Amino acid sequence: MFQPATELMMTTQPLLLLENIRKSFGAIEALRDVSFSVGRGEVVALLGDNGAGKSTLVKMISGGLEPSGGRILFDGEERTFRSPLEAKNAGIETVYQDLSLCTNVDVVANFFMGREITKKVFGIPVLDEKTMAERTAKAISDAGTRIPSLKVNVEHLSGGQRQAIELNRFVYFGGKLVLLDEPFAALGVEQTRRGLEMIRRVSDQGIGVIIITHIMQQAFMVADRIVVLRQGTVAGDVATSKTNLDDVIQMITGENIANLSAYQRKEGLPRTV
Amino acid sequence: MFVSRQMATIDFALDNLVWLILLVVLVVFSITIPNYFQIGIFANIVEQSTFVGTMAIGLSLIIIAGNIDLSVESTLALAAMVTGLLFATRGAGMGFAFTPEWLVIPISLAVALLVGAAVGATNAFFVVKLQMNAFIVTLASFIWVRGLVVAISGGRSAQSLPDSLRFLAIETVFYVPLIAWISIGGFIAFASILNRMPFGRHIRMIGGNKVATFRAGIKIDRLTTITFIMAGAIAGLAGWLLALRTSGATANLGTGMLFQAFAAVVIGGVSLQGGVGSLSGVYAGVLLLSSINTAINLMGMPAHFTQIIHGGLVLVAMLLDTLKTHIRARMI
Ligand SMILES: Nc1ncnc2c1ncn2[C@@H]1O[C@H](COP(=O)(O)OP(=O)(O)OP(=O)(O)O)[C@@H](O)[C@H]1O
Ligand SMILES: [Mg+2]
């Protein structure tokens, strides 16, 4: 059973390997030669300022956008996901920055969107509302989220409750890789704490995680590795244990920390980590 | 728990508001209009609702899926005319017959459905494959399909469908002719599909948020195509029923029904924004329109009053829709 560490490194390829990914929107070059990898059970925090290209990169992995160049290797195979469905079928779950819920239907319908459980009635597949409602209720209460009624249309829910639905959804459906684009933006303190725990639990099952966040504290709490994008290129790729806040901020802004104003230091550097 | 139960009750009431309005209207008419309160009158209201009602099923599905189809009226006319031309015995009718005679039922029905599905498939091709605006595409179909009706009939009418078909429009069960029962059956069947099957759930979600459904891996293009074909085929069914009722078809058959169907759909609580509405509400909307038509007839008012009232009703329905949204927003 025992394997020397070096041999293990050689036999396990990363779950996701990005090689020289490029993406341009017309004249805008959103990403240039982006390369990094995510291992099984590894949590990678993808950091960078507004417009650095984080969401664009995530959309290319999740099948929403096609790269203009470069290779994506998933599970050791070169893949181009032409639609979110293909990515999903390969085992990639995504929580998007702009939430993707249908507010005109209830919580259960959203939870099982596109993956409804059916039962046969006279040979016709009919929605199994009862089973779906039970599983949704369980998933949501396991995560400690409180939603008044699962039968209520999502338009009646708060931003945080909506985000919780999406978060619980990926935990329930699992997969191999999870992409989280600012998943906690609308969550309260306690819900965020639970969310971070959830990410650890998911990664303990061997699922790879990429989490985008603007809150350094979260990145340091949950990530094994930090990858920084700046103006569409990788400005840093370091193990969380081998770096510190000042270095990361410097990678993000490209400025020496000493040059930042006192205010920026105060706002940008939550000293609690 | 109490709050959410109360919320559910209000939700239920708002969703079924149109049935309540129908009930009130019927009671008021029964009290104020002599001869209104009769089984025959009510049966007549149900019968009158058959054609607009059936057409409104397909229209509702399309609108709930976040699209629009203006072509259903012309599609209805085309299916009716093809039925008339093939199976009527007088006028432009060619009078095809079969042995045994009853075979004409499934064959004529299949032809009408196929004609409708073909128009729907054409619409879907332009909207889904070529990414053209559905309003424009189906407006074009509204025009060219009507043109086709005139062209294939040479402007003549086809009369006298065989008795083996006609009996469906004549025979009654509980005072209501079989064709009306077919329409009601259609409502029930498609309401079940919309509420209980993944297909129905998916088109409703597409109407609610296209991006979200795409990301969830729902095959939007495929489902939109199916919805257009369905709406066409259902319009074909409506045309077949109307041909049976009028025992043939004229080139201008069904003109004006599109507006009535839209009125019924809106009154029934279907939002033109997509994603919201139920077929039960739409059926109540159709019944409401027919009830008012009947009242106007009985009171001997000139027919143009019907138009004024229908127009007013659509405005009231839109107002109600805004009001409902308001109440719902307050509840939270
Ligand atoms: N569809 C598009 N068309 C044109 N430009 C785009 C498009 N999507 C993104 N961009 C551009 O690509 C760059 C990267 O955008 P992206 O959304 O990936 O940034 P981000 O790192 O996620 O920022 P934020 O932190 O604000 O979410 C930006 O300059 C943006 O304007
Ligand atoms: Mg972003």
Explained architecture:
The complex is a heterodimer of chains A (273) and B (332). Chain A has 273 residues and is of the alpha/beta class. Chain A has a domain at 5-91 and 175-267: P-loop containing nucleotide triphosphate hydrolases (Rossmann fold). Chain A contains ten helices and twelve strands. In chain A, the strands form three sheets. A six-stranded mixed β-sheet of chain A has the order 6-9-10-3-11-12, sandwiched between helices. Chain A has a four-stranded antiparallel β-sheet with strand order 2-1-4-5, covered by helices on one side. The longest helix of chain A has 16 residues, at 189-204. Chain A is globular, with a radius of gyration of 20 Å. The mean pLDDT of chain B is 91. A three-stranded antiparallel β-sheet of chain B has the order 1-2-5. Chain B has helices at residues 2-15, 17-32, 39-64, 72-87, 104-129, 134-153, 163-170, 178-196, 198-208, 210-215, 220-246, 257-267, 279-298, 304-331; strands spanning 90-91, 158-159, 172-173, 176-177, 248-249. In chain B, helix 3 runs antiparallel to helix 11 and helix 5 packs antiparallel against helix 6 (134-153). Chain B is mainly alpha-helical and 332 residues long. Chain B has one domain (2-331): ABC transporter involved in vitamin B12 uptake, BtuC (Orthogonal Bundle). At the A-B interface, helix 3 and strand 8 of A face helix 1, helix 9 and helix 10 of B. The structure holds adenosine-5'-triphosphate and magnesium ion.
CATH class of chain B: Mainly Alpha
Using only C-alpha atoms, the radius of gyration of chain B works out to 20 Å
Give the strand order of the largest sheet of chain A, numbering strands 1, 2, ... along the chain. Answer: 6-9-10-3-11-12
Radius of gyration of chain A: 20 Å
CATH class of the domain at 5-91 and 175-267 in chain A: Alpha Beta
Please write the string of helix (H) and strand (E) elements of chain B.
HHHHEHHEHEEHHHHEHHH
**Low-pLDDT segments of chain B:** none
Average residue pLDDT of chain B: 91
